[in-house]
Amino acid sequence: MIAYATLGVNDMDHAVAFYDAVFGALGARRFTTSPTWTGYRRKGDPVPIFLTRPWNRDVATGSNGGMMAFLAEDRTSVDAFHTAALAHGGVCEGPPGVREGMDPVFYAAYVRDPDGAKLCAFVRK
Fold it and tell me: Residue 103: which residues within 8 A CB-CB, separation 6 or more?
């Protein structure tokens, strides 16, 4: 159902540095870049993620209650996602670990990007 997703950013250069590292940890690569529109995709994934400046020129902010979650290949990738996010200006919203009560086992890490968007990387193993 989802054709693509966007994350609002305020400084494209800063956001690209953050997402190159964070998405790189999950095996995704940047495939297009411009001052207002930058896209990422992992080989075989049909849905790209785009960074964009808000079209109304207001400040990009994280949504209250919104989150984008990304499926990782393994726990090492989840750990690398979290480490890369913190090293590039992200904020921890939940360190890597098993989330209790989930079946199958749900191993996840949560961060906020420099513009406040909440992100999760997880694996069910």
Answer: none
Please state, in angstroms and rounded to a whole number, the distance separating the CA atoms of residues 36 and 47: 19
Domain 5-123 is of which CATH architecture?
A: Roll (3.10)
Question: Where does the chain show beta strands of DSSP type E?
Answer: 5-8, 28-32, 37-42, 49-52, 68-71, 91-99, 106-112, 118-123
**CB–CB of 64/43 below 8 Å?**
no
Given a contact cutoff of 8 angstroms between Cβ atoms, the answer to whether 21 and 11 are in contact is no
Residue 105 pLDDT level (bands cut at 50, 70, 90): confident
Q: What is the DSSP letter of 98?
A: E
Coil, helix or strand at residue 96: strand
Residues 6+ apart with CB under 8 A from 71: 121, 122, 123
Q: How many CB atoms lie within 10 A of CB 41?
A: 18
> What average pLDDT does range 85-102 have in this prediction?
93
